[in-house]
Specification:
This protein is mainly alpha-helical and about 280 residues long. It has helices at about 1-25, 30-50, 65-85, 90-95, 100-110, 115-135, 145-165, 170-190, 200-225, 230, 240-250, 255-280. It has one domain (about 1-280).
């Protein structure tokens, strides 16, 4: 149960980051927002580790996996921030929701987890719920839409690597190293597109890093306690705070199909929860 609570908490924090990033994309380049997300993650996590968790600052046991995790998330962030700068949060997120399906299908290959119909079925049902929300017949499949799908692919593999790392490195170390990888890569690219932010934009760029740090730490902790394939369907919960943020800040109010889709998604999560307790 602790893993589920941590996972759901993560999916509550990360949409806040997305909402701020979408607002910032009106005046700040997507790549610069992505760079700030990693720069401020390192700025937040490193001092905390030096002050309170010095023992966790060490060489990774799996440096290649740490680098791969950082690259996957960096690419996923660029793709997603670009997609939400063009299309709505709900459309972009729903297209990115192929990530739980990627986790469930590929965790048997890369993590040697047993993935049967009891795990695959609720993920598929949850994805159908997402399709009800976006109603594919009216979606314009432009570059931003493909970027959102690419986000889901990258993020699914990112979650698999996170699960694999959870048995080797400390969660704080993983969070720090992911930030370092993204900050270093972004620092080589961002000078070419830099736009000088004002004070308000600097604060919001910092908040992007702050909510990213909190959300991903919670995510890492949840994956340390439970199998990736078991937690995958709970990623659909992210659409709830996403819709709330979209309504209050971007005037996107869900219609009856959105609510129908949400019911389907929630029911798929309840099915997983039932199997989590009765089958371990």
């Amino acid at each position: 149960m602790k893993a589920i609570i941590l996972n759901l908490s993560a999916w509550t924090m990360l949409p806040v980051m997305d909402g701020i990033a979408k607002y910032l994309s009106l005046s700040v380049p997507v790549l610069q927002i992505t760079w700030a997300r990693y720069f401020f993650t390192v700025s937040i996590v490193l001092p905390l580790m030096i002050l309170f968790f010095k023992n966790n600052i060490k060489v990774s046991k799996k440096p290649f996996l740490q680098f791969l995790r950082g690259v996957l998330l960096f690419v996923a962030n660029i793709l997603f921030f670009y997609s939400i700068s063009v299309i709505s949060l709900s459309k972009a997120l729903t297209l990115a929701f192929i990530s739980p399906l990627v986790v469930t299908l590929f965790s048997s290959i890369f993590l040697k987890e047993q993935v049967g119909m009891t795990k695959i079925l609720p993920v598929i049902v949850g994805f159908l719920g997402c399709l009800i929300v976006i109603r594919p017949g009216i979606i314009e499949f432009n570059l931003a839409s493909f970027a959102a799908i690419g986000t889901g692919l990258m993020y699914g593999f990112y979650l698999i690597v996170t699960r694999k790392l959870s048995t080797h490195d400390n969660p704080l170390l993983t969070l720090l190293l992911t930030g370092v990888v993204g900050a270093v890569i972004g620092s080589f690219m961002v000078p070419f597109i830099w736009v000088q932010p004002n004070i308000e934009e600097w604060i919001m760029l910092f908040l992007v890093g702050l909510f990213a740090s909190i959300g991903h730490l919670l995510l890492i902790l949840s994956l340390k306690l439970s199998e990736a394939s078991k937690l995958a369907p709970f990623g659909y919960f992210e659409i709830v705070p996403n819709i709330i943020i979209g309504y209050y800040f971007f005037n996107n109010f869900p219609d009856k199909y959105d609510f129908l889709g949400l019911i389907v998604i929630i029911l798929s999560g309840i099915y997983v929860l039932k199997n989590y307790f009765y089958k371990g």
